[in-house]
Specification:
This protein has 14 helices and no strands. It is mainly alpha-helical. The protein has a single domain, classed as ABC transporter involved in vitamin B12 uptake, BtuC, CATH 1.10.3470.10. The C terminus is likely disordered.
């Protein structure tokens, strides 16, 4: 591994992998919380139009993809907020229209070529240029500032929009901000794992972390740690085995999810037995007609989303992160 650090392109690749390993799960934990795990995949389809426009006008495909993805994410959020029955059809046309338009633009551009398009569809981390790395770093900083700095407010909105709205939290603004942040994350990650696999890096580390954690804050921290681990390990392994880095990263993340799932089953049974064993003691100390202290604590946890934001240390049962 030390030998590959002698190459500038590998240094850029590892830095880009770390940035993506942080940003993708940091956003993905909110998408999983509100059951929008495939939103990244849809934005990835729309991003292809931005890549095509970048090729057509001979500008930075990343910045063009950011612009198009942000517009697409805003449209997606507005359609979701309306909640109409035909919203799914509108989103489907947006997704597939974005991919078709991107392919068409790439084919008529001066930079047309299957290799150039493949690098964005499946990722080509070894071709990350210094300018690409600078762009990725700036976008990643914005994503981290939003997802970490506004964690309490975003969690409250993802947990219960109606309750958050009653407490005075600007729900619509935060929903749009989350959609835009997801769009930016897609463009950050497309050079590392590709537009077709970016959603996996946003969701799989979060799903793996959920197997062993019991609070929102712990899930987010563990997912980010797993994202960094699989990104760096995937890039290193792809260099050693001479295979594409994007698929290697995603398959490694899925393997870790499988391992964590196998570990989580006996842990869940142990927690259940412990709860059953302590159940009679709680019942003996309870006063008829009154809730026990454990029940009162559970009730407090369930209503932990306040105007100042939610308590991320709440049990996983109250955050909705339980599988």
């Amino acid at each position: 591994m030390i030998d590959m650090l002698n190459y500038d392109f590998m240094q850029r690749a590892l830095i880009a992998a770390i940035l993506v390993g942080v940003t993708a799960p940091a956003v993905g934990v909110y998408l999983v919380q509100r059951r929008q795990a495939l939103m990244g995949d849809g934005i990835g389809h729309v991003a292809l139009t931005g890549v095509g426009l970048g090729f057509l006008f001979q500008t930075s495909p990343i910045w063009m993809a950011v612009l198009v993805c942000v517009l697409g994410a805003i449209v997606m959020e507005l359609v979701r907020a309306r909640g109409k029955q035909r919203g799914d059809i509108a989103l489907a046309m947006l997704f597939y229209g974005g991919m078709a338009c991107g392919k068409l633009l790439v084919s008529v551009s001066a930079q047309a070529g299957s290799g150039s398009l493949e690098s964005y569809l499946w990722g080509s981390i070894l071709t990350v240029s210094p300018s690409d790395l600078g762009t990725i770093a700036v976008l990643a900083a914005v994503v981290i500032a939003i997802t970490i700095g506004l964690r309490r407010q975003l969690f409250a909105v993802c947990q219960d929009e109606e309750f958050a709205r009653v407490t005075g939290i600007p729900v619509r603004v935060l929903n749009l901000l989350l959609a835009v942040t997801a769009a930016v994350t897609v463009t950050v990650a497309m050079r590392v794992v590709g537009l077709l696999l970016v959603s996996a890096l946003m969701v799989v580390p979060v799903a793996a972390a959920q197997q062993l954690t019991r609070s929102f804050a712990a899930t987010q921290a563990a997912a980010i740690a797993l994202g960094i681990t699989v990104a760096v390990a995937g890039v290193t392994g792809s260099y050693q085995a001479d295979v594409p880095s994007g698929p290697a990263i995603v398959l490694l993340a899925i393997a870790i999810f499988a391992v964590f799932s196998a570990i989580a089953a006996p842990l869940a049974r142990r927690r259940h037995r412990a709860a059953v064993d302590h159940g009679p003691e709680v019942c003996k100390t309870a006063i008829p007609g009154q809730a026990t202290s454990a029940q009162q604590n559970t009730g407090d946890d369930l209503h932990a989303t306040t105007a100042n934001g939610a308590r991320e240390s709440d049990p996983i049962a109250s955050t909705g992160l339980a599988q």
